[in-house]
Amino acid sequence: MAHDPHQSDTMSRQDMNALAADVVRLSRLLTRDREGLPASYLNDKGLRRAYVRYFLPANISKIVLPLNELSRHPNALLSRENIRILDIGSGPGTAILGMLKFFSDRGLQWIRSGKICRKRKRFLRN
After folding, report:
1. Domain range for residue 47?
2. I need a labelling partner for 103 at 20 to 30 A (CA). Which of 33, 59, 109, 126 fits?
3. How far does CA 53 lie from the centroid of its chain?
């Protein structure tokens, strides 16, 4: 189920059912079956797809909303010329993606230099 950005985002019933099953499976692993969650769960294509298609958009909003609030700070913390961000244990990089969205939505280029070290390079490619 490769995503082609030039086509509409419609899914077949079979693909939708597979995604729904993977979302339920990942939700259970992230909540009540947490002890069964393997460290490499994003290596599972179905779980990775569930995260990207279902959980990632909501989780990005969880980063963007607080940054919106922080942007209203009287000391203009997010308007400084140099902002350093360290995201330790970033998992699939959701926080960084949320920050990229926040700053790019405002037409700001905020990464002048940076290094992203990923243990799960496969996640970044898919």
Report:
1. 13-125
2. 126
3. 10
pTM score of the predicted model:
0.68
- 22 burial type by CB count under 10 A (0-12 exposed, 13-18 middle, 19+ buried): buried
Mean pLDDT of 11-23: 94
Please, are residues 93 and 118 in contact by the beta-carbon 8 Å criterion? yes
Number of domain units in the chain: 1
Residue 77 pLDDT class (50, 70, 90 cuts):
confident
The first and second tokens of residue 67, run together, are 């940054």
Within a domain: 3? no
User: Does 109 fall in a domain?
Assistant: yes
Q: How far apart are CA 28 and CA 19, in angstroms?
A: 14
Q: Please, are residues 18 and 12 in contact by the beta-carbon 8 Å criterion?
A: no
Q: Is the dihedral of CA 43, 47, 52, 55 positive or negative?
A: negative
